[in-house]
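Protein chain data
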Amino acid sequence: MEIAKLSSKGQITLPVSIRRKLKLNTGDQIVIQEENGRFYFDNAALVAFTRVERAFDGAAEEAGFASEEEMQSYVKEQRNN
C-alpha cells in the first residue's frame, strides 16, 4: 500500500513507485476512473493508445489487406504520391 499527500490546493504527489508502475513522467496526464466506489488511476496516453488500437483492430483485414507487409507497402506508396 502506498500513501499520497494532499496539498491545500487539492493536489496529490504520487509516490515514485506508483509513477514508475504507471510509466508517468513530469507533465504527463492521468485518467481517474471510479468503479463501485473505488478510484483507479492510469496513464492517459496509454489509455488513449489502447482505445485507438482496439478501434482499429481488424480494420486491415476489412480493407482487404492479406498481410502486414502488404498494408505497409500500400502506406509507403501513398506517402510517395
